[in-house]
Amino acid sequence: MDFHLYDTTLRDGTQQEGLVLTVGNKLEVARALDTFGVSFIEGGWPGAIPKDTEFFRRARHELKLRKAELVAFGATRRPDLAVHEDPQVAALLAAETSVVTLVAKADARHVNLALRTTETENLAMIRDTVRHLTREGRRVFLDAEHFFDGYRTSRGYALRVVEVAAEAGAEVVVLCDTNGGTLPDELGDILTVTATTGVRLGIHCHDDSGCAVANTLLAVDAGATHVQVTAHGYGERCGNANLFTVAANLALKKRIPVVSQDSLSEMSAVAQTIADITAAQPVRAAPYVGVAAFTHKAGLHTSAVRVDPSLYQHIDPEAVGNSMRTLISDMAGRAAIELKAKELGYDVASTSEVVSRVALRVKDMERLGYAFETAPASFELLLLDELGIKRPFEMDSWRMTISGGRVDASVRLEVEGGHGLGAGLGFTPIAALDQALRGALAPSHPDIVEWRLVSCQCWSLDGSLGKPAATRAVVTVTDGQRRVSTVGVDDDAVTASWLALQDAISLVLLTREPIAG
Amino acid sequence: MDFHLYDTTLRDGTQQEGLVLTVGNKLEVARALDTFGVSFIEGGWPGAIPKDTEFFRRARHELKLRKAELVAFGATRRPDLAVHEDPQVAALLAAETSVVTLVAKADARHVNLALRTTETENLAMIRDTVRHLTREGRRVFLDAEHFFDGYRTSRGYALRVVEVAAEAGAEVVVLCDTNGGTLPDELGDILTVTATTGVRLGIHCHDDSGCAVANTLLAVDAGATHVQVTAHGYGERCGNANLFTVAANLALKKRIPVVSQDSLSEMSAVAQTIADITAAQPVRAAPYVGVAAFTHKAGLHTSAVRVDPSLYQHIDPEAVGNSMRTLISDMAGRAAIELKAKELGYDVASTSEVVSRVALRVKDMERLGYAFETAPASFELLLLDELGIKRPFEMDSWRMTISGGRVDASVRLEVEGGHGLGAGLGFTPIAALDQALRGALAPSHPDIVEWRLVSCQCWSLDGSLGKPAATRAVVTVTDGQRRVSTVGVDDDAVTASWLALQDAISLVLLTREPIAG
To answer: In chain B, what are the domains?
Structure first.
């Protein structure tokens, strides 16, 4: 089936607060979207936004797309101006894309208040611009902006916009719930009526009512064969329909092959790549691709997934390149500890004494403010301790000085066969300590200088723990292969994060080669 | 209408990764939910989780609920055990709530694999437990776990569970999409059939397909009169249907008065209160209550909302206690700057030269890496500079030393009529500098010692800005009344955040009394 998975991350997605992409960033995102397998990539609005004009110029030389078509976005001609005299329309042609998507008002109220023209002139603007672009050899899609609001206020006019666009040569007319206020029942009803026009319909939803994904699916149920989405649901206000959620729902549940099975199995990695480029923190609970999407905490669920993971998972996580995780918390019993140990690669079923000691220490440490569910590596280190595995180093002493905003740190360690000394320089205490610690370990582990402190987060713990000023710190480090998170608790944030950091580095060192579990 | 808005934040919501609530936290959340006006608050699972047993014990004395009923959650009796001998059922009664919600398997596969009992025994467990609790004077709701999966695999059995529960005396049977995998079309179809049983139905949705809110609404369309939700959609994996989104959709769009108009207009504040208690960062793009829910960035949208905000907003933000914001970015023209200035309370329409200078400086500073959309207070300070308003202090000199993980900072300022000196101690450079700066300003502004540094976030900027190691820092401070965010850019993170902090404190000082704009 000719079904369009149409991505507008680079245009509508960049309306999200805090999302500021360079032209280089936009090219990188386009490559990731193409690799994933979307059909169309809307790159921006040439002529209106200088950065977007530059994007299309560079894209012509630098962007070799495997499958996707690049699309330029723009508006219908200005009121009372001949289409060939409109510089904005000329800029759309100058972008040299094979497809152009035009936005046009489908709500009479907007025509009057925002465009400040007549309903008749608005239809002429649509007709002229679509015809002009198709004559110039472009495929044209038309975004019927505010279609659903327009349908409510003046149904006949909204439908007329759809028909005029199609008659003029628009290949698809995209019904836009621009303000995101339409609920599923109403959207389904409106789609059903609009489908009787016989025009090929698309759908573009916003999430202001929390229904963007569902509305997109319901539009497909009603006959739409073109869906507009953005990576991670980026977009203005509450965002747009989420590319990843929509693609997986369509492919896995509605059996519409919008992307290949292989692409789908890389989806979580694609999502992470795009989040790395945009520097917007991905939502942990995001459907399909979120870190927590297949994470189990409840005791009953944990024991059931041990029998059969499908009992508490709607799909196999591997189908979208994600994986199942279970969490250790103060509710963890022996079964959860055995399961988590197994997940980490240790078979402790036969050493029931170890399991008992670990369970006891988990409960004790959780009471002090540790939270193992946020730091699985701390649990693994605790397990190794109880299995009698010796730590790779012991801390002898450490100190820091600061001047001019820069922190100097030095550490002295006991390591196998002697001492290790290291010094570090950073803008924060933990960055300087990290460098110093890795310096001290470098003689015996040369590649450790390449490891990286990914993040350090702190929480204040409330007074009920008996330590009014206590802080919980979770530190994440990577050796380039994997990320390891550990937790530390202490009266002050620097010591808490420093303890966590030492544990994280210890764990990576201990688990680089297989350990007898 | 007797419609149940049933909140399970304290039970199902706490299955979310990283959500670790003390009993004190749980009591606070219950108070916030009651103030908001939910009908039922599910408090936890007494007997199974020690913290929850303690919660119900303390709730009896410490929790005076205005409107909501507290609910204890638990399971049907164990297989092959008389109901009055089951300690888990006894613990439910011991919680002394007027309502008990029982979870029961509605999927034959789960009965066999997870419960390891027969389908007949499962029905007996439901019948016995519901009868036992109703005889003891409890109102009973029954969560039909995995109902939708069960309907797919063995429709007759799933429906039988619904009927048996109702016959035994359950007031509501709640259809649970426990794994969150059901799409709207299928859910609607199943609800329509199930409604023919004549049993009062509830709905409990998870967001694994991104459809939890829509599915909840579609169930209501099909006749459900009891909706289970959690604050912020907290919950295991991808979370549950979001209380705030569902409540606003039902009240404002479906005209079902689940909470009063007054409560609704406090909803954004309630959402913030609960996020403060759980310490889980609220999603900025969350429908209705998110900081970004009514935020406009696109140039065309910004000029349209100047004409009529309803052109790009699905509801009036004040109806849910939120407000409209517009963003200043490198795309901001004179119109956007005038609008943003007006939003901040300055009428600059008549001083076109100021607007031009501000527009120029915004573009210049954005090129250096500043991002005004994340720091509206920096824009306001820039505006004040161009309006000729003098800063409240100038930095003379500052220094820091660190030892044992503690940072000492000292600053010397020029202030009106002389110098200010201050010293500070903290665990991070910015915390120490913050204290030192406020100390230096305290003689002229005594209440400044109560102000607080809320957060400090840093981003590395890419090489395209010509400064390979540059950092953008955004700092937020509060004087107890409002939060103010400013941005700083420099080669190192400490200086970037220190510049932003000075600006934030300057702005609060400058704008405490009305300024002639």
So the answer is: 4-259 (3.20.20.70), 295-386 (no CATH), 393-510 (3.30.160.270)
Contact (CB<8Å) B238/A286:
yes
Q: Given an 8 Å threshold on Cβ–Cβ distance, is A373 in contact with B20?
A: yes
Convert the pLDDT of each residue in B121-131 to its tens digit: 999 999 999 99
B405 and A494: CB-CB below 8 Å?
yes
Nearest by CB to B314, from A24, A179, A315: name it. Answer: A179
**Lowest-pLDDT range of A47-51, A109-113, B212-216:** A47-51
The separation between CA B120 and the C-alpha centre of its own chain, rounded to angstroms, equals 43
The two beta strands, A406-415 and A393-403, are antiparallel
Spell out which residues of chain B touch residue A402, defining contact as CB-CB under 8 Å: 400-402, 407, 429
Retrieve residue A184's tokens: 């599923």
CB contact under 8 A, B298 and A215: no
**Residue A43: both structure tokens together:** 């790159």
Q: What percent of chain A has pLDDT over 90?
A: 67
Does pLDDT of B468 surpass 60?
A: no
The string of DSSP codes covering A168-234 is HT-SEEEEEETT----HHHHHHHHHHHHTT---EEEEEB-TTS-HHHHHHHHHHTT--EEEEBGGG-
Cβ atoms of B109 and B150 closer than 8 Å: yes
- Choose among A434, A390, A396: nearest CA to A414: A396
Mean pLDDT of B296-320: 83
Alpha-carbon gap, residue B99 to B4, rounded angstroms: 13
Q: CA nearest B426: which of B404, B445, B446?
A: B404
Mark yes or no for CB contact A296/B208 under 8 Å. Answer: no
Which DSSP string corresponds to B444-464?
T-GGGGG-EEEEEEEEEPPGG
Q: Confirm if A177 and A210 have CB atoms less than 8 A apart.
A: no
Q: What is the pTM of this model?
A: 0.82
Cα–Cα distance between B142 and B418 in angstroms, integer?
72
Quote the CA–CA distance of B296 and A17 in Å, as a whole number.
8
- C-alpha to C-alpha distance for A169 and A134, rounded to whole angstroms: 7
From A293, A304, A330, residue closest to B208, measured CB to CB: A293
Instruction: Spell out which residues of chain B touch residue A221, defining contact as CB-CB under 8 Å.
Output: 185
Residue A480: exposure state from Cβ atoms within 10 A (0-12, 13-18, ≥19): exposed
Please state whether beta strands A40-44 and B295-296 pair in parallel, antiparallel, or not at all (unpaired).
unpaired
Angstrom distances, CA of residue B398 to CA of B403, B408, B420, B450, B499: 17, 11, 12, 22, 12
Q: Which has the closest alpha carbon to A513: A481, A485, A475?
A: A481
The single residue listed with the structure tokens 């890419």 is: B462
Residues of B in contact with A217 (CB under 8 A): 183-185, 211
8 Å CB contact of A314 and B181:
yes
Closest listed residue to residue A438, CA positions, set A427, A425, A456, A428: A425
Distances from the Cα of A394 to the Cαs of A31, A473, A474, A490, B328, in angstroms? 46, 20, 20, 18, 51
Candidates A181, A211, A238; nearest CB to B286? A238
pLDDT confidence tier of residue A463, bands split at 50, 70 and 90: very low
